[in-house]
Amino acid sequence: MKRALFIGRFQPFHIGHLESVKHILSTYDEVVVVVAAAQYSYTMENPFTAGERVEMVKRGLGPLYERSYIIPIDNVPSNYEWPRHVLNYTPRAEAVFSNNRFVRMLFQEYGYRTYETPLVEGVSGSIVRRRMAEGGDWRSLVPPPVASLIDEINGVERVKSLYAMRVSMRGERFEG
Amino acid sequence: MKRALFIGRFQPFHIGHLESVKHILSTYDEVVVVVAAAQYSYTMENPFTAGERVEMVKRGLGPLYERSYIIPIDNVPSNYEWPRHVLNYTPRAEAVFSNNRFVRMLFQEYGYRTYETPLVEGVSGSIVRRRMAEGGDWRSLVPPPVASLIDEINGVERVKSLYAMRVSMRGERFEG
Amino acid sequence: MKRALFIGRFQPFHIGHLESVKHILSTYDEVVVVVAAAQYSYTMENPFTAGERVEMVKRGLGPLYERSYIIPIDNVPSNYEWPRHVLNYTPRAEAVFSNNRFVRMLFQEYGYRTYETPLVEGVSGSIVRRRMAEGGDWRSLVPPPVASLIDEINGVERVKSLYAMRVSMRGERFEG
Amino acid sequence: MKRALFIGRFQPFHIGHLESVKHILSTYDEVVVVVAAAQYSYTMENPFTAGERVEMVKRGLGPLYERSYIIPIDNVPSNYEWPRHVLNYTPRAEAVFSNNRFVRMLFQEYGYRTYETPLVEGVSGSIVRRRMAEGGDWRSLVPPPVASLIDEINGVERVKSLYAMRVSMRGERFEG
Amino acid sequence: MKRALFIGRFQPFHIGHLESVKHILSTYDEVVVVVAAAQYSYTMENPFTAGERVEMVKRGLGPLYERSYIIPIDNVPSNYEWPRHVLNYTPRAEAVFSNNRFVRMLFQEYGYRTYETPLVEGVSGSIVRRRMAEGGDWRSLVPPPVASLIDEINGVERVKSLYAMRVSMRGERFEG
Amino acid sequence: MKRALFIGRFQPFHIGHLESVKHILSTYDEVVVVVAAAQYSYTMENPFTAGERVEMVKRGLGPLYERSYIIPIDNVPSNYEWPRHVLNYTPRAEAVFSNNRFVRMLFQEYGYRTYETPLVEGVSGSIVRRRMAEGGDWRSLVPPPVASLIDEINGVERVKSLYAMRVSMRGERFEG
């Protein structure tokens, strides 16, 4: 059983992420999708809760789910300790995939083989969120079941409100 | 017994806050004043400790105190979990008042009725702090007993130092 | 303005606690009632939430409330750092009252004058809770408004359930 | 889409747990298996890491996995806040299943419908662990793929060592 | 430069610990003395603060100090993550020495070579503390400079008080 | 025994720091070098782990080490509580030295005498890091044994990568 970690925030899960999973599963038996920064939600960069993101990933994966794990994992203050923290919550894996250079750097220091996933032109979490906030076409950038879920939870309205309020990850909640 | 929460940081407690409490107590039997971001102090945005702020609120409320609770509550990393955290430390209440849109949003998601309080023109915590830092007239913006307390603890000098050092909420404490 | 801290868990607030507050207020202008171990609830030793305990204390104090603060404070892992943590959330005070020897020891090490409060024979938090659990007379041990509040929140039933399940402060929540 | 939470520690996942999932999936479309006390491992009561437990559950579920989520969730100090914490990391659900009375009590207080799952006579996590420690027959109490995984990670040897050392959940790590 | 970790709680640093350091320095160039459970103090098992213990070790080591590091490190909830946490705060080392089997087990799982240190008959931290509490001869069990330091900080009186109050590591601070 | 604290982040330990230690040891018997912000590493401002920094300081101090302690200490959220936190992990000291005004302010509030250390023109942690990042001469700004250590751990390459990725102390680890 060959297994790899795929690490992202999935705010939201988009078609680039889906391509990454397909790419990983063309070589590995199973993939562990790590939903990082799990404790954060209701901010511009992290509008969706970990539970919502986990549901997005499962729905977005469709039949690929049977070869996948989806595991939300909190950030921790220490970059040096973070890979060990991830591995505490994940099934054993041989390699780490992420499009984030820094994630790869930290896992290399820990002793793992790391890989980039192929980028899909013009798709990223921040692009999808900005289109939601500005009324642009975000639906074509996410798998259809993810769009449905976002509609069910009024996700677009939430993103618009957070952008209007400019609630950042470390936003001041209580100015008064 | 009808009761409402009133949520702010009270850095410091000013005449706008006092008006809000009066407004709430015109409809509710009791108010629970939540001193949010309680763990922070000695920064530009949060110069005063929770204990100092609690004392400001009690003194500022005067005879209204007998119908009031004053409860300091820490921020927590998860926005989604924060309303439940507040409710853990507060007596039962039916509604939430805050001039902070984001606070209202989070409590609405939790299932509470939320309200704005009437704004007093030209008064806000950041205005009071800036006037302290710049030697302007801040005394007219706070209830007289709050001004006395700020004098007793050398609050203006503290705010000036923090502004001069530009110590932000996430300030680097230890550059060297 | 002479002020003292009075530190307890108030699970629940009983007539001995009320006597202590009266005793303190015979010498001091104000008392700061510290509701310690605030984060704990729904255990045998800590059945009530901090918010419930704060409400108990206010109701139990009656007219003494206008000379009192009631402030919930979490436990922290370090005994050495705990007095400073308490002082972060409380108005300035000159002395500390507690019937807990260890609390007094820690504040003495920090440099405070500490005092015992006069004990009321046959009353303690654990006696009240045990009587609740066993169907004994607990009402005569708490101020009448506290008894009313405990009735409103079905407190006796809660304590009975927790005793039946033997949920300790560090109880295993998830054996399966 | 009707969905329920199923909450346990799964130390390890045994045939009683599997029956519970089948029972839940006879009524609900999907189940969210919450691997509680996720941060603990290498103790007598919690020998396996969250990642190992997640893998056990997926393997043990077999084809039922496509209708299941498996989500590790840390304990938090506040019992009152814990249900909200669980819901932060889980897809929306209508009901909560657990054989732990206390878990059900906390979710009832939060406002959820809760249910027991049918008990399988003579099977529990502590029975399985004790048999591992004492050289008894534990294999018949877990689904065969779980037994295989436990063999792969030398789980029996680990449990024996932890029992020999008597490492409890709050065990002293550093006596010297 | 060959370096080894030596892990203990040093409550207090005794002659057995000193022998261990000598033993390690007979093979390694340097030793990193890890003062574990650093956040705990003022309990029966952990009477001394991390700072006091660090001072004990330096004084106790005498001229060996120039080949030693002394580093206080907090406990963390996850046993699996704890070795990585230790390594975050310590200079690079090749091996781990500890008389605690469980410490060795956790570092073996992490991939380190681990060793026991030679036991000195009749000396352990708990023996020293009990003798302090009961008025026995504890001085012959610690290096003379450690005894001096314990005298300077009134350590024996502290231990006696903690034993009299029976303050355990997870002791109830606030019964009332 | 007269002792002083010297507080910095030591990212990395440079010749200005060494001068400060010499200055302190000209008046005090011993110095306690506090490696602050210990939990942070692998960022632009904090590239090195606490363990690496501790090793830098010991090597950089050379024979002065026998009169020095080197103690890594985490940041905590509360500025008011931070001096007490530092003192929990450090041997008793009479005074605090730091070139950081804010550090001195917090210790003054706590009741300590505080002092600046003499600045060495043109040397600071941020200057050294920027030179590393930009290929400038950083070696002349650190004691030779510190330069050797930085070479052994490929520190320059690490700093360059972190600058290229612009990983700040609160950097987004997981954009995707």
Secondary-structure-derived class of chain A: alpha/beta
Strand order of the largest sheet of chain A: 3-2-1-4-5
How much strand content do the residues of chain A show?
5-15%
CATH T-level topology of chain A: Rossmann fold
Enzyme class (chains A, B, C, D, E, F): transferase
Family (chains A, B, C, D, E, F): Belongs to the archaeal NMN adenylyltransferase family.
EC number (chains A, B, C, D, E, F): 2.7.7.1
GO biological process, one term (chains A, B, C, D, E, F): NAD+ biosynthetic process
Short synopsis of the structure:
Chains A, B, C, D, E, F: Belongs to the archaeal NMN adenylyltransferase family. Chains A, B, C, D, E, F: This is Nicotinamide-nucleotide adenylyltransferase. Chain A is of the alpha/beta class and 176 residues long.
Features:
Rossmann fold; disordered C terminus; five-stranded parallel beta sheet; homohexamer; 176 residues; alpha/beta
Architecture overview:
6 copies of one chain form a homohexamer. By secondary structure, chain A is α/β, with parallel strands linked by helices. Chain A has a single domain, classed as 3-Layer(aba) Sandwich (Rossmann fold), CATH 3.40.50. The first copy, chain A, contains 7 helices and 5 strands, in the order βαβαβαβαβααα. Chain A has helices spanning 15-25, 50-61, 82-88, 101-110, 125-134, 144-152, 155-165, and strands at 3-8, 30-35, 68-72, 95-97, 113-115. Chain A has a 5-stranded parallel β-sheet with strand order 3-2-1-4-5, sandwiched between helices. In chain A, α2 runs antiparallel to α6 (144-152) and α5 (125-134) crosses α7 (155-165). The longest helix of chain A is centred in the first third of the chain and has 12 residues, at 50-61. Chain A is globular, with a radius of gyration of 16 Å. Chains in contact: A-B, A-D, A-E, A-F, B-C, B-D, B-F, C-D, C-E, C-F, D-E, E-F. The D-E interface holds D 39-43, 49, 161, 165, 167, 170-176 and E 7-10, 17, 36-37, 45, 75, 77-80, 82, 98-103, 105-106, 109, 124-126, 169-170.
